[in-house]
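With this grant's support, we have settled on a layout for protein records. One resulting record is reproduced below.
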Amino acid sequence: MKLKFQFHVHTRKDPVDRPFHTEKEMIDAAAKHRYDVVATTCHNKVVFDEDLKKYAAEKGILLIPGIEKDIEKRHVLIINATQEAEKIQNFENLRKYRKTHPDCFVIAPHPFYFTWFCLRKKLVENLDCFDAIEYSWYHTKSFNIWNQKAEKFSKKHGLPMISTSDNHILVYFDRQYSFVETEEKKWENIRKSLKSGKIEIH
């Protein structure tokens, strides 16, 4: 089956950005745009509970816990994260976390952009920590140099690209997204398909 997914979303409980919309309003927006899988990825905090999981499931959405963690002052997306991920401070911590949580999936968000929190050389130095590269929403048709660099990097190192909206304002929720081909709508199947690159980016 082909599943539409969004893996970079911020909500009101984000301790850094604090968007206006609640988690349930975000889920409503995802349902409106016919998403199958969504991960909440607030800064440095895993925003997820059974009530939200159930609310999403009632709308046909598999909700995955995630986090956009500051690691050595750089942003890293961890999908299917536990609260233990909130304690990660450096890339050695991340390596240990991946070993003890082999069902997580780590994405390099906006890796080559110009802001201080983008990975850039930290991605190169810690390539073993990452499963995929993000194709960032922040570009225009005529100016897209940073995503183009990310595309070249992903091809060179054999890492899949995932398109996200890095959503903070719901009206833009569906601007960029991805599809994954998988056998079942279960995280273990989705992760396996993501790792093998069965992804379409939009």
Remarks:
- The beta strands are 2-9, 37-40, 62-71, 74-79, 105-108, 132-135, 161-163, 178-181, 199-201.
- Residues 179 and 200 are 5 Å apart (CA to CA).
- The first strand starts at residue 2 and ends at 9.
- The chain has a mean pLDDT of 97.
